[in-house]
């Protein structure tokens, strides 16, 4: 995304390229970014979208450990991750992992159900194709 690229270029310590893990951002960093919106040639909507994308996903959520340092735009300490924020990030990551596992299991469940239905279908077809001696007219 072009917006994140601009943030990475202007604020490389807060928005490093290929971060693993990402660094927790200070609470209120959006307002700090708004102060630079004109300089960055970005709208409030673009900045909001960039922050949503940046702060979503495993690399960000795994960085949100209780007591971890939050960074401001210059990469300096801007507070610490609270216990509540750490718990919330853990729940978000667990939810993501559950969705991934559910999606991975769905094709397997469908294949198992399909394979289970195949013998039944074959058996029904076989019974229909071969008349029962009791149902055959003499």
From TrEMBL:
Any one Pfam family match given in the protein's UniProt record, by short name: ProQ
GO cellular component, one term: cytosol
InterPro entries the UniProt entry points to: ProQ, ProQ/FinO, ProQ/FinO_sf
Single GO molecular function: RNA strand-exchange activity
Gene3D superfamilies given in the database record: ProQ/FinO domain
Keywords associated with the record: Chaperone, Cytoplasm, RNA-binding
Annotated protein name in UniProt: Activator of osmoprotectant transporter ProP
Source organism per UniProt: Caballeronia sordidicola
């Amino acid at each position: 995304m072009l917006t994140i690229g601009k943030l990475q270029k202007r604020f490389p310590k807060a928005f490093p390229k290929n971060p693993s893990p990402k660094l927790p951002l200070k609470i209120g960093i959006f307002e700090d970014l708004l102060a630079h919106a004109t300089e960055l040639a970005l709208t409030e909507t673009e900045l909001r979208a960039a922050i949503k994308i940046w702060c979503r996903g495993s690399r960000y959520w795994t960085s949100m450990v209780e007591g971890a340092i939050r960074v401001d735009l210059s990469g300096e300490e801007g507070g610490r991750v609270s216990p509540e924020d750490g718990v919330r990030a853990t729940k978000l990551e667990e939810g993501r992992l559950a969705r991934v596992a559910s999606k991975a299991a769905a094709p397997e469940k469908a294949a198992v159900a399909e394979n289970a239905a195949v013998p039944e279908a074959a058996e029904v077809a076989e019974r229909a194709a071969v008349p029962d001696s009791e149902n055959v007219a003499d």
